[in-house]
């Protein structure tokens, strides 16, 4: 019996077909794995979110963590209420700075970022501030909506204290403290440091102003935020990426980058007058 050499062996053909199907499945999985993730961001909060340059600690952390699994982030700047609405409508894939229970039908990441609100005063005033009650009878300037965000005890103080006010532009808090128009400002310590340097670079604070030592009274617990995603897989991918950049030193390098951004080291080196101010006591990143 003569074999037809032009007719492919059926077992070989099946094997090749299965290989092709496996290859296409693998390619499809890889395409699904790498995605552009639309993330809703509601506020520019330097140094965490810097809208003008589409940068900041949180945005870079987000990008680095997602990149571990091949994803990219597309940042959508929207009012807070609209980010919630568009996430529910499926027009966004995720949002940042969320706490457990704020939204239903989403997948919460591990803790992504921690803010540290402080009552910040000037050392020369020699204030004793160990708790919220110590803010009574002081000129206190806080960030917008602080009275509804920092707990019942703080809300009670804010209501009873005729010297309490809130500022929408947090840079104003820095001016008011350093120019002795407020006794205490309540804000995140890194936001304070960022705006302190920006105020100096813009000529709104002098070298003499910067020689004043600010003290961070940590009377508030750290505020931990998570990110929320519509997709469980994307949430898992983000968590994997967050763990990796934490373990491989990328997160430490990112924090150091922004520590340098908020520092006066380069300005001190370039000036014969300005020395590197400590900026704020009781501080750790």
Automatic annotation (TrEMBL):
Please indicate if the UniProt record lists Signal as a keyword: yes
Span of domain Solute-binding protein family 3/N-terminal: 36-262
Q: Which domain of life is it from?
A: Bacteria
Any idea which UniProt keywords this protein has? Signal
Q: Which Pfam families match?
A: SBP_bac_3
Listed SMART domains: PBPb
Which InterPro entries does the protein's record reference? Solute-binding_3/MltF_N
UniProt similarity note = Belongs to the bacterial solute-binding protein 3 family.
Its name, as the record gives it, is Transporter substrate-binding domain-containing protein
User: What is the native source organism of this protein?
Assistant: Shewanella scandinavica
């Amino acid at each position: 019996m003569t074999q037809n050499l032009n007719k492919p062996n059926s077992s070989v053909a099946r094997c090749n077909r299965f290989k092709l199907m496996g290859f296409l499945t693998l390619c499809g999985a890889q395409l699904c794995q790498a995605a552009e993730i639309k993330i809703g961001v509601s506020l520019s909060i330097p140094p965490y979110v810097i809208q003008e340059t589409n940068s900041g600690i949180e945005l870079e952390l987000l990008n680095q963590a997602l990149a571990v699994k091949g994803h990219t982030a597309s940042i959508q700047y929207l009012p807070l209420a609209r980010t919630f609405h568009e996430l529910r409508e499926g027009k966004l894939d995720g949002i940042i700075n969320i706490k457990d229970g704020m939204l239903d039908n989403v997948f919460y990441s591990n803790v992504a970022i921690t803010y540290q609100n402080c009552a910040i005063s000037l050392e020369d005033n020699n204030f004793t501030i160990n708790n919220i009650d110590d803010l009574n009878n002081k000129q206190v300037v806080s960030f917008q909506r602080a009275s509804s965000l920092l707990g019942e005890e703080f809300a009670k103080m804010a209501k009873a204290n005729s010297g309490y006010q809130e500022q929408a532009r947090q840079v104003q808090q820095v001016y008011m403290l350093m120019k002795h128009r407020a006794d205490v400002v309540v804000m995140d310590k890194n936001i304070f440091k960022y705006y302190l340097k920006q105020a100096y670079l813009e000529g709104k604070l002098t070298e003499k102003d910067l020689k004043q030592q600010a003290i961070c009274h940590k009377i508030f617990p750290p505020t931990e935020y998570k990110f929320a995603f519509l997709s469980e897989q994307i949430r898992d991918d983000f968590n994997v990426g967050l763990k990796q950049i934490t373990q491989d030193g990328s997160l430490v390098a990112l924090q150091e980058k922004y520590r340098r951004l908020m520092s006066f080291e380069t300005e001190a080196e370039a000036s014969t007058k300005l020395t590197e101010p400590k900026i704020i006591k009781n501080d750790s990143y």
